[in-house]
Amino acid sequence: MHTCVEETVDCFEKYSTLWEKLRNAVVELNDYYEFDVDFKYDYIVTYDLQAIQLKTNIEAKSGKLKFVTRHVPVSCSVASNIPGYEEAICVISENPEKLCRNIFEYFWQVTESS
């Protein structure tokens, strides 16, 4: 397992603002040219990642920040309405790299089937 500690810079807004999801270029062009299109997809895949918190003792280089836990991904539930892949699956691994690889291999398998 690889451990990477990078220097981070915390930035905080002086005044809070509401978060707004950015619109993509296709939606912007649709509005600009006033097309009446409903962007819906026939098939969809959803997933939910789960992680555990492990104790750690990492201090930032500045010495002002100390991390006491770290998130380690351990599982992913995947569900879709794609024919042949309607049953939800759960991918589990103690190794985050292997977990990620297995998830994307499953996504690739689903993509290739359609």
How is this structure best described in words?
- The chain has helices spanning 25-32, 96-113, and strands spanning 45-59, 66-80, 89-92.
- It has 114 residues and is α+β, with helices and mostly antiparallel strands.
- It has a domain at 40-113.
- It has a 3-stranded antiparallel β-sheet, with helices on one face.
- It is flat and about 55 Å long.
- The chain starts with 24 loop residues before the first helix and ends with a helix.
- The mean pLDDT is 86.
Unreliable segments of 5+ consecutive residues: none
Shape: flat
- Count the beta strands: 3
Calculate Rg over CA atoms: 20 Å
User: Helical content, roughly?
Assistant: 10-25%
Strand content: 25-35%
Count of helical stretches: 2
Arrangement of strands in the largest sheet: 1-2-3
> What is the structural class?
alpha+beta
Order of helices and strands: HEEEH
Which terms summarize this structure?
114 residues; alpha+beta; 2 helices; 3 strands
List strands and helices in order, with pairings.
Layout: H1 25-32, E1 45-59, E2 66-80, E3 89-92, H2 96-113
Provide a brief overview of the structure.
By secondary structure, the protein is an alpha+beta fold. Helices cover 23% and strands 30% of the residues.
